[in-house]
Amino acid sequence: MTPEEVKIPINLPEIGRIRARSAAETGCRHWILGCETLDRDYADYDAYKEYLAPLGIVRIRLQAGWAKCEKVPGVYDFSWLDHIIDDALSRGLEIVLETDYGNPVYPGGGGADPQRRLPMPGAAPVVPPEKNGFPRSGEALAAWDRWVKALARHFKGRVGEWAMWNEPDTNKTATPEEIVDFNIRTAEDILSEIPGARIGALSLASHQPVVLAKHLTLLCEKGKMELFSDIIYHAYSLNPDNCYDSVRGMLRVLKDLHIAARLRQGEGGCPSELCNTFAMKNLPWTLLSQCKWDLRRYLGDFGHGVESGVFTVCDFHHVGKGINRKGLLAADADHNVLGKKPAYHAVQHMTSLFDRETRLIPACGAAVLAEKASFAFRAERRGGLMGVWWDASTVPGDDREPGTADLMLTGEIKEPALCELISGKVCAFPEERILRLPGRMLFKEVPFIDSPLILAEKNIIPME
Predict the structure, then answer these.
(1) CA distance 348 to 6
(2) Check whether domain 366-460 has CATH 1.10.3470, yes or no
(3) Nearest residue to 159 via CA among 284, 61, 70
(4) CB–CB of 348/56 below 8 Å?
(5) Could you tell me which of 79, 56, 76, 54 has the C-alpha nearest to residue 67?
(6) How many CB atoms lie within 10 A of CB 90?
(7) Any idea where the domains of the chain sit in the sequence?
(8) What is the pLDDT of residues 51-83, one digit of tens each?
(9) Cα–Cα dist 333/324, whole Å
(10) Residue whose C-alpha is closest to residue 269's, from 343, 374, 354, 353
């Protein structure tokens, strides 16, 4: 299905389309593109590598895969990861490398996949779920330290950012104390080889402020907060906007603890069809509602001043659980890419407009005058103002016909154009529906739907 077939009908004169731009053109660092599960062979990097740079996102997230790197104790094979990282670098991309998971070749080494219930091909049987987490034995922990140091040493100069073990809190046997101690030892291993490395802490599945506070308080008490430049959480909610009370709460936690590290949403995405496994399961998601959810998550994060992870570039086959359909690209169980989903184009349009020259204007100065709950913010690109808004009250659905509302913006847009990101359509906005006030503008009867729309200065919009 093409973007044209899932677009939102906007009853305004079309004047062009947003021009998709590559990562080299956008320099876009607001988002990190997920290229996960390659460490477990659940996807094939070579099948989708040509789609990465055209998406317009500079940074990609990879998982290092201890068990894939060290199949024989003491013997490291980084060639599979060399291939991926070197190719990504050749495309002008930057690497965020995550240090996980366990390694069953060591007693007490944990599992190679925290959710896997079947053995990896040619590997030892999977450990019981309650032990399928961090390495815990002395022998395994020492081996972990050696591997992390070897990994950092090997990729020094090629990997600019690092992240801790993914979602350790999903293992209910892992206490905050253990998670924090494991983060500290791993960060110190990296820094011993790469002084000054940028490292993201925690990578929690939870986005609850009380959970974050427990972990960060421990880090502060141990005097180790300075090891980390970012604090990572994940946010899955059926209505993507329902998590932002928690996000504001987490930002308050950082402020209260006098933590300078930045908050990052490290993993968020929506299926493109009904699935009975994985996050966001058991709802009749569609190609259209995936577009809306993704745009609301990624622009909602931007509007709250939080970096954001795009999960994920491609559908992947999680052996024993099925295909995770959150990809921007469709793929089958054999890792063949079947084509771009409309969400691929929607994210492409978003990154083309919200590029490296775009900054959030913190004092909002934007409001939707409507009965429904809504979210709105202002941004600036090349000196031109942008207003962004959507109906935040519901789970994204398949509704296409927009209602209307009035939009109040602080500032001035001389020649306003309205952008719809799913199709990339750009429309002129009629002057007779604009009330220009001192320092403010009231836009009357703007389209209003459960997907982001943008009013921007026409001359700052990259158009075909």
Answers:
(1) 15
(2) no
(3) 61
(4) yes
(5) 76
(6) 10
(7) 22-356, 366-460
(8) 999 999 999 999 999 999 999 999 999 999 999
(9) 10
(10) 343
Burial class (CB in 10 A: 0-12, 13-18, 19+), 411: middle
Structure tokens that stand for 445 in this block: 């009867």
The string of pLDDT tens digits covering residues 97-108 is: 999 999 999 999
In the chain, % of residues over pLDDT 70: 95
Nearest to 80 by CA among 69, 92, 96: 69
User: Which pLDDT does position 115 carry in this prediction?
Assistant: 65
Mention the CATH class of domain 22-356: alpha beta
Helix (H) or strand (E) run with residue 67 in it = helix 66-69
Predicted pLDDT of residue 2: 64
Contact between residue 232 and residue 203 where contact means Cβ atoms under 8 Å apart: yes
Residue 270 has which token pair? Answer: 């929506």
Distance of CA 108 to the CA centre of its chain: 32
> How many C-beta neighbours within 10 Å does residue 435 have?
12
User: How far out from the chain centre does Cα 287 lie?
Assistant: 18
CA dist 53 → 27, 88, 159 (Å): 10, 9, 17
Question: Which 8-state DSSP code applies to residue 158?
Answer: T
